[in-house]
Amino acid sequence: MNYPSKLLNEIVDEISKLPGIGKRTALRLALYLLKQPPEQTQSLADALLRFRNDIKYCKICNNISDTEVCEICQDNSRDHTLVCVVEDIRDVMAIEKTGEYKGVYHVLGGIISPLEGISPSDLSIDRLIQRIQNQNIREVILALSATVDGDTTNFYLYRKLTGLPVSPEISTIARGISVGEELEYTDEITLARSIQNRVPFNKTLKSKDNN
Amino acid sequence: MNYPSKLLNEIVDEISKLPGIGKRTALRLALYLLKQPPEQTQSLADALLRFRNDIKYCKICNNISDTEVCEICQDNSRDHTLVCVVEDIRDVMAIEKTGEYKGVYHVLGGIISPLEGISPSDLSIDRLIQRIQNQNIREVILALSATVDGDTTNFYLYRKLTGLPVSPEISTIARGISVGEELEYTDEITLARSIQNRVPFNKTLKSKDNN
Lengths: 211, 211
Prior knowledge:
The structure is a homodimer.
Chain A: H1 6-15, H2 23-35, H3 38-54, E1 56-57, E2 64-65, H4 71-74, E3 79-86, H5 89-98, E4 103-107, H6 125-134, E5 139-142, H7 148-162, E6 169-172, H8 188-196, H9 201-205
Parallel strand pairs in A: 3-4, 3-5, 5-6
Antiparallel strand pairs in A: 1-2
């Protein structure tokens, strides 16, 4: 588009580099900021720079953190022998929200994706292996998305971890129909898998105490 | 949501202040920036501040501009006696894109909207009146959105401008069915209005030379 101002052009270009934001939305956001007090833009710009420059990754679990070691890894009430492997911080937050998990995490920073050019070396897999070799870890839970890339990464990790001299127990989160979901609308693969992987009914009764 | 980092919390808060962006999208954008080189965040922050602090409003037409007087108002090949009144810069850009309009603009900066608390004094109406009184203006075209607020503003401006000692001709952009639109799917009010405001057929033939 032909903007009547270089400054406007520049800001629309910059904002529309963000994923899912097109030129039209970028223009709307820029014009919105123009109608707000300058302080709002200032604090947005400040927060952006502070976030990008000062954020740290926990040196134990690779999660986003304000400190060298994140709050979860510092928490002694947690079970540090139980490590849940996730893709990114959003998954940590999702699991934390359940309030059911008392172990610690390992954040891969992505999943193996040949299509997006993400290979194992781009992820914090080496650090996971080091962690397993140096710390006393009883069980690793693979909690990646139920997608082709997630399955690939699960399998890659499984192979790597079982090949270690001292290998922890390796589990993966249960897949099946969601709570509240109707069988009729469940896709065939999920349904077939949840029949294959059926569990003794009495096990589901005490599942709340199982972690 | 409970973020494990104050910096993340802060940036998500700031980004989600923007219209149409919720906490979840804000988190996605923040994590995206974290995966890009720091230079991208730096140039976004710089562009935001430059835009908000250095942008000017043309002192003639009130449009966004890098200079005191915008390019359109500086352009001597345009007809400065013909002023098109629009809501904001997006409308200027939309009309400019047609390539059919050779007059100049007056940007109100909004439309009268009791629901959103925008009154005539919040808009550059006084400057439009000054402009009409000081310059030689032959015609004012009211080109506001075809909404209740647009109609209200049109009517308010019509009353104001016709009350001036020397009043220019006042017109409004034609409303009717869009080019390419099928009658069957046109709403009743638009269809009724376009029948009421029907134009001699031969006038439509030469409409391209009429501005």
